[in-house]
Amino acid sequence: MAKLDPAQYVRDVRTEVAKVTWPSRKETLITTGLVLAMSALAAVFFLVVDQVIALGMRGLFGMG
After folding, report:
1. CA 56 to CA 48: how far, in whole Å?
2. What is the pLDDT of residue 1?
3. How far apart are the first and last CA of the chain?
4. How far is residue 7's CA from residue 15's CA, in Å, rounded to a whole number?
5. Virtual torsion, Cα 26, 29, 30, 34, nearest 10 deg
6. Rounded distance, CA 37 to CA 29, Å?
7. Residue 48 DSSP SS3
8. Which CA distances in Å does 22 have to 3, 18, 19?
9. What is the mean pLDDT of residues 58-64?
10. Residues 41, 51: Cα–Cα separation, whole Å
11. Whole-angstrom Cα distance, residue 57 to residue 55?
12. C-beta of residue 30 within 8 angstroms of C-beta of residue 37
């Protein structure tokens, strides 16, 4: 069984974090904007689909 060495673990983590390519501020803002826009688009799409289904159900069952 391997011996746990917290100091070695921290060194390994720092080495791996140094290898990460972090996005720039501009890339982060663009990506965040795209996520928000796609979320809003999906919300509108599902709202429209829900309303169409509700309209169809009201027409089919004569309620409302």
Report:
1. 12
2. 66
3. 69
4. 12
5. 170
6. 12
7. helix
8. 32, 10, 9
9. 82
10. 15
11. 5
12. no
The residue type of 1 is M
Residues 6+ apart with CB under 8 A from 64: 58
- Beta-carbon count within 10 A of 44 CB: 10
Distance of CA 13 to the CA centre of its chain: 26
User: Which residues lie below 8 Å from residue 63, measured CB to CB, with a gap of 6+?
Assistant: 57
Which amino acid is located at 63 in the chain?
M
What is the rounded distance in angstroms from the CA atom of residue 9 to the CA atom of residue 42? 42
With H, G, I as helix, E, B as strand and everything else as coil, classify residue 21. coil
11-37 pLDDT, tens digit each: 999 999 999 999 999 999 999 999 999
pLDDT given for residue 62 in this prediction: 85
